[in-house]
Amino acid sequence: MDVNAAVAAAAAIAGVLTGVIAMLAFRWSEREQKRPTRSSLHTDAVLPPGVDTVLSVLRSSAVVLDEADAVVKASSAAYALGLVRGGKLAVEPMMQMARDTRRDGEIRQVELDLPRRGTGRGEALAVSARVAPLGSRLVLLLVEDLTEARRIEAVRRDFVANVSHELKTPVGALSLLSEAVMDASEDPEAVERFAGRMQIEATRLTSLVQELIDLSRVQNDDPLEDAEPVRVDELVAEAIDRCRHQAGTKQITMAAGGAADLRVWGNRGQLAAALGNLVENAVNYSPARTRVGIAARSVNAAGGDHIEIAVTDQGIGISDKDKERIFERFYRVDPARSRATGGTGLGLAIVKHVAASHGGEVTVWSAEGQGSTFTLRLPEAGAARDRAHQQPARETRAGGAGLDVEAGRSTPTSPESTAYETLPAPEVLP
């Protein structure tokens, strides 16, 4: 009995000790959980109240560094630009700015060109970095992406330079010709010859100014504000009538064909100007005694039915390297021929922007010595009108502020799929 009692007493004592140890361990665990950790000291605890909310709504990329140059807070845009990697600021010039600002408290700002992540083309990312102290221990870095702003500024400079050059040529010619007229005032034949040249230069200057106005209008106005159903056959007839004189001079036959009674939804004036530019180019770049065809057809597409208007010529054709740039402003495949025909290099740029603002596109197929086929693809009247009513505030302009000079991306289209020969017999117009 005494042995059993001793065993029971020992077991009771062991149980009490186990309970005490478990209770002490539980209390110690709770105390450790309540104690602030190192990571919490470097995030919420060190950020001044409200800073986290302010940084989350800034458009600039934001990074907050502590006294050890560790990242306390970084916006998602900062990670997207590659500024922060592995919890550290990855741009050494910005890191040095942060250290200098932490040392003397002075606000610093600098513009840098950084390598763009994820591209193998060596493109630079232009940024503006501003560093300022945030409290006594932290430094705030704000980074703004200037790449697009610099691109637009470069486009503006190129545009102004091109316009100045194009305007200077006819203006200079008019000045010289007027002096020649004055010097030859007693020679009627010379006066007549110089006056004829002056008239040509004046016409060229007028065309350039008008196309600049047209380009500005199609890029800054919303063509769908006053949109209406427009008959395609009327647009074709108007484009042919516009080029009838030039075609007759070169004995070029113009033929219209394709499906009848087609309608597109848009601004009649802009659509007529775009199609007229395509037909005029076809006539100007075609040899004498050739043929220019205009054909329209309806095409079923996933996003809704479209109308394709194809303009086919038998001209000199376009090389592959030129096809990538023909929709740029002032770009000419053959500058000598363009100047001889009065071309300004703005016609296809206007076509591209009219197509884009109407929710369509313009594509080109061409081969040197085999002619070209330009296809204007526009939403059909019914589908386009429904989308316009559902989304009245939809932005469809291309290029922004009328300064986008990038080449239009064109999908090659075989001439067999759009040329007028494959459609119903065309009506030959004199």
Automatic annotation (TrEMBL):
Location of this chain's protein in the cell: Cell membrane
Annotated Gene Ontology cellular component terms: plasma membrane
GO MF entry, a single one: phosphorelay sensor kinase activity
Topology in membrane: Multi-pass membrane protein
GO terms of biological process kind: cellular response to phosphate starvation
Record carries keyword Transmembrane helix: yes
UniProt keyword terms in alphabetical order: ATP-binding, Cell membrane, Kinase, Membrane, Nucleotide-binding, Phosphoprotein, Transferase, Transmembrane, Transmembrane helix, Two-component regulatory system
SUPFAM superfamilies referenced in this protein's UniProt entry, alphabetically: ATPase domain of HSP90 chaperone/DNA topoisomerase II/histidine kinase (SSF55874), Homodimeric domain of signal transducing histidine kinase (SSF47384)
Annotated region described as Disordered, given as residue ranges: 383-430
Primary subcellular site in the record, as a coarse category: membrane
EC code: 2.7.13.3
Keyword Transmembrane helix: yes
Top EC class for this record: transferase
Domain Histidine kinase: 162-382
Segments of skewed composition (Basic and acidic residues): 383-397
Protein name: Sensor-like histidine kinase SenX3
Native source organism of the sequence: Streptomyces hawaiiensis
Lineage: Bacteria, Bacillati, Actinomycetota, Actinomycetes, Kitasatosporales
